[in-house]
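Why do we care about 3D structure at all? Because function follows from shape, and shape follows, mostly, from sequence. That is the central idea of this module. The next example makes it concrete: a single protein chain, its amino acid sequence, and then its structure expressed as C-alpha cells.
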Amino acid sequence: MDMGQCNDAYSAIRVAAALAEAFGCSVNDLPLSMILSWYEQKAVCILLTLLHLGIRNIRLGPSLPAFVSPNVLSYLVVNYNIAPISTPEEDLKKILG
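And the structure:
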C-alpha cells in the first residue's frame, strides 16, 4: 500500500497501529514493510522516529544515504531488520519468503 512521500510516514504508522490493534498483535507482527525513499534530509528524521517507535522491517532506497556506512548498515540490519531495496520482484521474494 503506497502511503505517499516520506513525510506521510505518520499516516502509515497510524494505519499499521490500527491494523495491529484490530488483529491483536504488534505492528512488527504484521506482514508489512515500510520503504523510505531517500530524496531529502527529512527522511533521516523519519527513520529515527520509526526506530524510536520500534518499527522493524524498513526498506531503504533507491540508494542508501551517505551516512549509512557498512558498519551502520550492519547494525541496522541486525537490530532492526532494515535492508536496502532492490527490484520490486526481489523485494517481494524477500518479504514473502
